[in-house]
């Protein structure tokens, strides 16, 4: 497994690549996630198949570029990246959280480029339903996140380190020291918050664009969703009533994704929260193996 930084014309993209095989697995992490969070999955993929995991522009060492960050621009960035590496065969595309929304847009824009899709607790094209939930605690709105991210984007890495005091989560402690350091570096980069502000601002219009992009390609689709009871119990950031209300809607949105194609399967990740790649990497490996054949 090795790191690469590839020039795609208007910016440079950072990625990890490894393994061998005829089919390439391409992984798009979540909005605020470092690709190094996926180390436990990547270590096992290294002996199974060729894989690539990318940092979207603005994340890690990927250059942010000048355009607004949307699922459309991310899909085209990924396509240019694959073309630069001369990967012409259809890929197995995996998207987590916001990366899943990008994966859905990629699959619709470039249907002939995908051999299968795995959505890991993916953001939904109907995510607006989450914003319509009346909550007791309104401190987690998009507007407040945009305001926070905009403020953070103006700080230096040292100031962010002091302001945020990022910590390695319990489910990240099994990662290597290198991966843990990279996660902290990712969380203390001003560009991360600049790109997050842009992505959060755009994501409802992105969802609308994905709906209008036509049918999802008729390829094998696995939808992996988090454990609702585990997620509610583990949420200590908001009150349990709000957590349960949000989770009910989130689960409905996850199950809607199963209806994207007839050749689909739903898998619930028992004892896993949103970061299924950290809580249940074994389940993601099993899902990949099932599509590799």
Describe, in plain words, how this protein is organized in 3D.
The chain is of the alpha/beta class. The protein has a single domain (2-132, 203-292), classed as Rossmann fold. The protein has twelve helices and eight strands. It has an eight-stranded mixed sheet, sandwiched between helices. A hairpin with a 4-residue loop joins strand 1 (2-7) and strand 2 (12-18). Helix 1 (39-45) runs parallel beside helix 12, helix 5 packs antiparallel against helix 8 (190-211) and helix 9 (228-234) packs antiparallel against helix 10 (240-257). The chain is globular, with a radius of gyration of 18 Å.
Topology at a glance:
Blueprint: E1 2-7, E2 12-18, E3 24-28, H1 39-45, E4 50-54, H2 71-84, E5 91-96, H3 98-109, E6 114-120, H4 128-131, H5 142-152, H6 157-164, H7 177-187, H8 190-211, E7 221-226, H9 228-234, H10 240-257, E8 264-269, H11 276-279, H12 281-292
Parallel strand pairs: 3-4, 3-5, 5-6, 6-7, 7-8
Antiparallel strand pairs: 1-2, 2-4
Helix pairs in contact: 1-12, 2-3, 5-8, 9-10
How far is the first residue's CA from the last residue's CA?
Answer: 23 Å
Mean pLDDT: 94
Question: What structural class results from the helix and strand content?
Answer: alpha/beta
Instruction: Output the CATH homologous superfamily.
Output: Alpha/Beta hydrolase fold, catalytic domain
Looking at the structure, the CATH topology is Rossmann fold
Number of helices: 12
Strand content: 15-25%
Strand order of the largest sheet: 1-2-4-3-5-6-7-8
Helix-strand topology string: EEEHEHEHEHHHHHEHHEHH
Summarize the amount of helix as a percent range: 40-55%
The number of domains is 1
